Amino acid sequence: SPFNRLFPATLGIALVVLAAGCAKPTGLPTPLGDRLAREQHGYIYYLDGAGGGTAKNNWASGVKEGLIAAGYNGAGEMYSWETGKGLMADQDASVKYKRAEAKGLATKIVEREKAYPGVPVNVLSFSAGAASAVFALEALPESVQVTRIVMLGCSIGEDYDLTKALKHVKGKMYLYTSTHDEMVGFLMKFSGTADRKFHDPGAGIKGFVLPKGASAETRKLYAEKIVVIPWKKKELQDGDKGHHFDNVKMPFIRDYVAPILMGKGVPDPS
What we know:
Blueprint: E1 19-20, H1 32-39, E2 43-47, H2 61-70, E3 75-78, H3 87-92, H4 95-115, E4 121-126, H5 129-138, E5 148-152, H6 163-166, E6 173-177, H7 182-191, H8 203-206, H9 216-225, E7 226-230, H10 250-261
Parallel strand pairs: 1-3, 2-3, 2-4, 4-5, 5-6, 6-7
Helix pairs in contact: 2-10, 4-5
């Protein structure tokens, strides 16, 4: 296997794309030379949704398989921010808790930048993992940036102020949205968003809106950095109905997410 230590092998696939931060190795061991070579091409930090985040329990086997199928030649790991107490405990966890966990990711990003200067570092998040991803960006030192961030089924409040986070994104923040995502659009109004807001549809439905009283700087960052990609009917050909967990299925990751993470831009459904 050219990868090591992430999601358990699925359907006999021994290749593993990302390394779980604290999990024991799964699948076939990775030759050291191959791992080092891949880290020279790029690195992805993946933050799973509430209730996931470990090699044993995660929503992301499709992420692994999709990146492999797309020919991703870098390395990466799944960063676990979750409480370990289940989906609702993760969703309900305080912003203070999530910020504290996110600092660990910020430290990893800083260390990677020092070890591999100039090598692309991308962040991929799903559902409530988007909150910890944003909090990690906010915790970075002023001089450190990630290459790009992709957010799937984002359950942060739509009016969350991204000003500080966007300053730490060299390229763009890509946000896949869907008005068919009932997990975000309906349930978040009762469970609360990952940043603990209620009666908010969540940014995963139509994207972020400018916070009240947005400064000229904030308006400029939103205009230049945020790319909202709404669900299209053409994506039905890949079995994607715009539902919450369609975001992390293999075909969607392969066809729509991996190209962005590989620096190829936003694919257009054909």
